[in-house]
Specification:
About 35% of the residues lie in helices and about 15% in strands. It contains 21 helices and 19 strands.
């Protein structure tokens, strides 16, 4: 390691609070990797949770590694090897390299980090001396298949359920020194939630659809069950390492719930984390007391924070300690005076709401469960309490969407603006509405998993129509993703293990997706734009997560009976 890199690592560590630095050589070593920048990875509560779980095991040492910043010329040129943060050790020196993966668009970074760490990209090319490359996180629980060739094993489901048992079994196996293949086979046979893709064969029909997926050895499970944690009060999920260099650095993050009772048909987290679970008020306030020793703002994290039965009480607890409560977004029909009063008392001036669609027809199709009156009533209440900035989340390219539905987004945004202005009556200042428009991506393990992606050019045109409608309005700002990345995300969300060939080409071509898609013999449209039959085998059917498939089929047919 050169002095410049060493100094950068030392500076990051010196600015952190809560970091664990164990003595090298005293146990099994795990390098926990986040396939994105440090500032993003350190704001990920799942990543921090895994770091805590592993380091609390006496016989394990866990360090971290992140994707280098794009401007690091030494890494780009291959002159500098990727090292762990805590002890600056090469990735190849660890027993386990564990990736925590939340987003499909981070997949290319996984291959880049393997290459920078001197580890063969493909699992079949690794020898006994190489680290065991494992992966977990919501993205890999939904559909691990596009990365099947690059990982030795996946840990599906929730880390608190699978990781301790996996670690114990690994610790027991290592002293006896079984070979890599024998170790993986043993893990697959004995550990619920573990998926070793090399131990399963995929067969295809001539038209490219999957005929079936079957274990290569006797005694292996036909399906991998990603079981949820039944009692989330049994542990505490909070920020472990605080860093001023992380996103949301001013906020101490606390998870208040998992799952969601509303089961919106597009939402992967709501379905895969079923059933919904809420932490008790007592456990949350204990975590708040701990967090307030470090920061004066508490970020309440979860898939259904607004549905916590004690949310107003939790916010009041925070405000009574002269601190702020931050919430990612509020469910529109759960915005009540008690919660808003506490948010405002804590100094919050911006609140995010998610109508998702402009028309009631599409909101009903999504099973969103909110009405136009719910939306406008929430806006009036927020304005009453001087919350003067609104962020509204919408999707474009939804199933059955028409031009009238896009017009409805524009009309609803204008109505929200007019409602806010009229409600102030000149007595208060209403500042800004931010419309965040993203293309709908069909997700595995949801009722819409059989749907194709909307044509990105057409959806792009519709998003531009919304943007154009507010081009002269200084009070409404529209932000949107680039449509081509929606195509890439859909490909990685819905693909099978053959998509790994595309990822390998993207890596070889230094991230040039356009060239990679032209060079490979795989047709990406097969995954992205094809309407799927409810009776066909889907790539992710090997994983049983959340609600049963028959329930998803019923919901899909109820939403789209034709």
């Amino acid at each position: 390691m050169n002095w410049k890199e060493k100094k950068k690592y030392e500076t990051l560590l010196a600015r952190e609070r809560g970091v664990v630095k164990k003595v090298w050589g005293t146990g099994l070593t795990v390098c926990l990797a986040y396939p994105n920048l440090y500032r993003i990875g350190m704001a990920n509560l799942g990543f921090q949770t895994v770091y805590k779980i592993i380091n609390e095991l006496p016989s394990f040492l866990c360090e971290r590694v992140f994707l280098p910043a794009g401007g690091d010329a030494e890494y780009a040129a291959g002159a500098v090897e990727l090292l762990s943060l805590e002890n600056q050790k090469p990735l190849r020196d660890f027993d386990v390299l564990a990736f925590s993966v939340s987003f499909e668009n981070d997949y290319p970074a996984i291959l880049k980090m393997l290459a920078l760490g001197g580890i063969p990209l493909c699992a079949k090319d690794r020898a006994d001396g190489h680290p065991l490359v494992i992966g977990g996180g919501i993205a890999l629980t939904l559909n691990p298949e596009p990365l099947a060739d690059f990982f030795d094993a996946f840990l599906t489901g929730e880390a608190e359920e699978t990781l301790p048992g996996f670690a114990r079994m690994l610790a027991e196996a290592r002293p006896s020194g079984p070979g890599r293949e024998a170790l993986l086979a043993s893990l697959q046979k004995k550990m619920p939630g573990v998926y070793v893709p090399s131990l399963y064969e995929v067969q295809y029909f001539p038209d490219g659809r999957i005929r079936g997926m079957a274990p290569r050895l006797k005694g292996l499970p036909e399906k991998i069950r990603a079981a949820p944690v039944k009692n989330i009060d049994a542990f505490c999920t909070t920020e472990v390492v605080s860093s001023p260099d992380a996103e949301m650095a001013d906020m101490f993050l606390i998870e208040v719930n998992r799952g969601c009772p509303h089961f919106c048909r597009f939402c992967a987290a709501g379905h895969v984390y079923a059933p919904p679970r809420f932490r008790s008020y007592e456990k949350i306030t204990q975590a708040i007391d701990h967090g307030l020793k470090a920061k004066n703002k508490i970020g309440l994290i979860g898939t259904a924070v607004s549905d916590h039965p004690d949310l107003a009480k939790i916010c009041r607890y925070i405000v009574n300690r002269q601190a702020q409560a931050g919430i990612g977004s509020l469910r529109l029909d759960k915005v009540d005076e008690s919660v808003v009063e506490m948010l405002r008392a804590g100094g919050i001036e911006t609140v995010a709401l998610a109508p998702e669609a402009g028309s009631q027809r599409l909101r009903d199709l999504l099973r969103k469960g909110i009405t136009r009156d719910d939306i406008l009533q929430a806006v009036r209440l927020l304005i009453d309490w001087d919350i003067s900035n609104l962020r509204l989340y919408f999707m474009a390219g939804l199933p059955t969407e028409t031009e009238e539905d896009i017009d409805a987004v524009i009309e609803l945004a204008k109505t929200i603006q007019h409602t806010a202005l009229a409600h102030t009556k000149g007595k208060r200042k209403f500042r800004r509405i931010t419309l965040s428009i993203n293309q709908f991506i069909p997700k595995p393990h949801t009722p819409f998993q059989w749907r194709p992606l909307g044509d990105v050019q057409e959806v792009g045109r519709r998003i531009k129509k919304i943007t154009h409608a507010f081009r002269a309005d200084k009070q409404i700002n529209v932000i949107a993703d680039v449509p081509k990345w929606a195509y890439v995300q859909a490909l990685l969300s819905l693909g099978d293990r053959r998509v790994g060939g595309i990822l390998a080409a993207v890596h070889r071509l230094n991230g040039n997706w356009m060239r990679a898609l032209k060079e490979v013999t795989i047709n990406p449209d097969f995954y992205v734009y094809r309407q799927k039959d409810v009776n066909e085998v889907l790539p992710w059917d090997i994983i049983e997560a959340g609600l049963p498939k028959k329930v998803l089929i019923k919901e899909y047919q109820k939403a789209l009976p034709d």
